[in-house]
Amino acid sequence: MPKKSEFHIIAITAIIVHRGKVLIAKRSEKEIAYPGMWTVPGGKFDISDFKNKRKTTKDAWYEVIEPTLAREVKEEVGIKIKDVKYLIDLAFIRPDGHSVLCLSYWCRYAGGRVKLSPDLIDFAWVKPIKSELGKYDIIEGIPEEIIEVGKILRRNKK
Q1: Is 94 exposed, middle or buried (0-12, 13-18, 19+ CB in 10 A)?
Q2: I need a labelling partner for 28 at 20 to 30 A (CA). Which of 43, 57, 70, 72 fits?
């Protein structure tokens, strides 16, 4: 059995854009990492996300992130997403000693009504600007990611 420091979690998150705002959600107080803090939807990448699907090559599966992210977003906040684009990655160590590699994406809202999973206790659609994000106790680094998506959106309008 590997030690906790050898056991890695891969997480994926989505900054979801809809009508110029992004969706944030508040984590339950029961969460191991960042209890009670605001974040963006996402979750753990798991072997079950591809293991029982047809392989793209003899030994591997390509393009597994987008369907996994869509599943996680649907499970966590009940909505559909589209136009998924890579943003940035980061790594951290959880309080229980597990290392986490987090792949952060941004995408567009594709439909549905927000319905929170039991792991989340609140949500808000916020403008991707520092003054509005500052009103929430958001996990460190995520406001900067959201602001970067706001910049991308403004550049794409030009």
Answers
A1: middle
A2: 70
Q: Among the residues of the chain, which ranges form H helices? A: 65-77, 130-133, 142-157
Residue 14 and residue 97: Cα distance in Å, rounded? 24
33, two tokens: 């990492």
At residue 130's C-alpha, the angle toward residues 28 and 155, to 5°, is 115
pLDDT in tens, 63-120: 889 999 999 999 999 999 999 999 999 998 888 888 889 999 999 999 999 999 999 9
Q: What does residue 74 show for φ and ψ, rounded to 5 degrees?
A: -60, -45
Q: Which of 148, 134, 32 is nearest to 90 (CA)?
A: 148
Alpha-carbon separation of residue 141 from 39, 55, 92, 102, 111 (angstroms): 10, 35, 12, 12, 27
Query: Which domains occur in the chain, in start order?
Result: 4-157 (3.90.79.10)
Given a cut of 70, is residue 45 above it in pLDDT? yes
Q: Token digits for 54?
A: 């047809």
Cα gap 127→21, rounded to integer Å: 5
